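Page 42, continued from yesterday. The earlier attempt failed because a stray header line got pasted into the input along with the sequence. Redoing it now with the clean sequence only.
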Amino acid sequence: MEYLTHSNTFKYIKNISEGEGTILLYNQIGDSIDEKGNYVYGISGSAFAYEMQYLQSVCTKIKVRINSIGGSVLDGYSIVSAILNSSVPCDTYIDGLAASISGVIAMAGKKVYMADFGTLMLHNPSGGNDKAVLDLVKNTLVTIFEQRTKLTAEEVSDMMNKETWLGSKDAFNMGLVDELITCSNKVKIKKNESLSNMALIYNKIINKPNMEKITNVLKLSNEVDEASIVAEIEKKDTAYAELLEKNTALEDELKTIKDAENAAKELAEQELKDKAVLMIENADKDKKITATEKPDLIALASSSESNYKLVENMLSKINNTKDAVKIFDPKNVVTGKGTEDRSSWTIRDWEKKDAKGLAKIKNETPEVYTQMYNDHYKKQK
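This time it went through. Structure tokens are written below.
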């Protein structure tokens, strides 16, 4: 949507969108003095013509929307001329009331549209005392209506003499409008209602709140009614609720998966730790490690599968020197002369008779040496 950036300059242009301009005649035509002597500002014919010139320079089509009680014939002539001389197609829309000179302006459109609740009024021009001038003005207006419709000049003149009020169907049947616009709004106009009040009533209907931002967000036409907007919002609300429900379900499913993964991870870690503890305990029993080494080795082996294999491989290469040494048997001591029974020898005997053998016992089987030492020396005390 391209909005007009000349809001401080133009009075009547509503907006320009996608090469189409809309200009409003939602007031009386020309200025006037009311019954109380107050000056009432209306739509200036020259200002309207100026804005039409601008629209022709930037648009490929123009819409003139009308809801007016009429007014100054002179200003009306300027507006009619601007529409007729437009260099781009210019259609007119009777959105509510098109009375007097505003009805004539409506006839200037290349194509004339009318709301199904709209009203068109024709009457003789008035003001001033020069009948010749008034007749000239009337003839001009009659010509405009005659050229626009299949009505004869006499028929148009007679309608103006009678001050004829036409609803949308009659105006369409007479060829005064080309197409009717069906609307959901219903309008009740009291008998003998003043033109000003009629225009106000129509204004309340046609001047709906500007919903362009909402319709743009919803990707709807700017012409849609309130029910269509509400239906689209409800549709989006339903879609949002469904997405929210799906998102919640996915979050629950993801949590279940994560919980299962965490549980599996904790179980694997505990199994690895149990396996590491068992391996280190066995290594301790096999005298491959000392008690002080156990905590660090358990921590390392249980930290990851790769570290477990590393520790396992390391332990497999350690020879238990204590287990590798033959158990000392004092009954079968090997000597240069063969085996000899030395089960009766005390530590003193070993010291005197075979000091080297005693040293070997001390290095290879310290438990036997300690026992022999205690048996002899502690008894001597």
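Notes: The chain has three domains: 13-207, 237-322, 325-380.
Reminder to self: strip header lines before submitting.
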